[in-house]
Design goal:
The chain is α+β, with helices and mostly antiparallel strands. The protein contains 1 helix and 5 strands; from the N terminus they run E-E-E-E-E-H. The protein starts with a strand and ends with a helix. Bound molecules: zinc ion (ZN).
Length: 65
């Protein structure tokens, strides 16, 4: 069973991985450094322009309840 490893900033699909996988990669779209460890997606390093995208994303989620 594979999990989708998606960028938390731009939601690009980076890989499909098992629960046991440990991967670190840079998103080709927004350059956010992201790692995947045993089913958990962790943002390691984020560009300033990407922080704005996250803020926009979070505010959308709040509006949706
Ligand atoms: Zn991205």
């Amino acid at each position: 069973m594979l999990n989708e490893f998606r960028c938390k900033v731009c939601n690009r699909l980076l890989a499909k991985l098992t629960d046991e996988s440990v991967v670190e990669t840079k998103c080709p779209r927004c350059k956010t450094l992201t790692s995947y460890e045993k089913g958990e997606i962790i943002v390691r390093e984020i560009k300033n322009e990407s922080i704005e995208r996250i803020r926009n994303f979070n505010s959308r989620r709040e509006e949706n309840g």
